[in-house]
Amino acid sequence: MIFRPAFYRTLLAIFLLTASWGSAAMAEPAKPPALDPAADKLFGNMCEALGSANAFSFHAEVLFEQVLPSAVKVQYAGAMDFSLQRPGELAVNYRSDTGAKELWYGDGKLTLFDPRYDMYATIAVPGTIDAMLDEVAQKQGLTMPLSDLAFSNPCVRPRKIAIYSGYMGVNDVNGVPCDHLAFSSADNDFQIWVQHSGKPVPRKIVINHRTEPGSPEYIAVLSDWKFPAEISATRFQPDLPRDAKRIEFLKVKESKP
């Protein structure tokens, strides 16, 4: 969630938003998980609704915390517009107190633009959303905001690492009744509020990075959900200023055997 100036100087090497509740790199739980079937069923319904959709878009209002070197915790705000069309198109417009990023994915290319520095990077990537997200996370260290929701099965990664899940009841998110679910992994606690009636879309996500210094939190409130038959192709094409400067993505250094 934090875009540090050093990354801007290396220029768009990483678009790292700690808004991911699961990671395949995390250790598997050492003991049998304490999972609630009711929570898992509701979570699965949400994943099915998103994974089976040909296209969707939403808006998110975001709050995130940064722990300063002095151990003081501060909170910042952001907003994001997210659009997806399967099998291989994605667009994210993100702006916050600490900076902004715009991302376009389509035709086997990923473009990331930093408006503050008027610089962008483009890289060839696989032609499906799942494969693209996996590859850029591994090779570029790039984790996109709320990218868990973009996978064809958003439940796979969280279920692999969950050691606890629970159903908290029907609670309110900005006037919308939602099923409140709680999960925990070895490193993170995450909660998700799924719309109780109609299409089971996520309305709020809270992630607590429990094992990081100061346990910073990420909060996203999702609204304006749309499920059109098709989104215009122009939404996924880079819209760059004429004088924007192109730079290169940096690769994650591979460890030597």
Map the helices and strands:
Layout: H1 5-10, H2 37-51, E1 55-67, E2 73-85, E3 89-96, E4 99-106, E5 109-114, E6 119-124, H3 129-139, H4 156-161, E7 164-173, E8 176-184, E9 189-195, E10 202-208, E11 217-226, E12 245-247
Parallel strand pairs: 6-12
Antiparallel strand pairs: 1-2, 1-11, 2-3, 3-4, 4-5, 5-6, 7-8, 8-9, 9-10, 10-11
Give descriptors for this structure.
257 residues; mainly beta; 12 strands; 15% helix; disordered C terminus
Please report the total strand number as a whole number.
Answer: 12
Order of helices and strands: HHEEEEEEHHEEEEEE
CATH architecture: Clam
CATH class reads Mainly Beta
* Share of helix, binned: 10-25%
* Low-pLDDT regions: 1-18, 23-27, 252-257
Computed over alpha carbons, the radius of gyration is 18 Å
Average pLDDT reading: 87
Order of strands, widest sheet:
7-8-9-10-11-1-2-3-4-5-6-12
Based on secondary structure, the structural category is: mainly beta
How many H/I helical runs?
4
CATH topology: outer membrane lipoprotein receptor (LolB), chain A
In total, the number of domains comes to 1
Structural shape: globular
Q: What's the name of the CATH homologous superfamily?
A: Lipoprotein localisation LolA/LolB/LppX
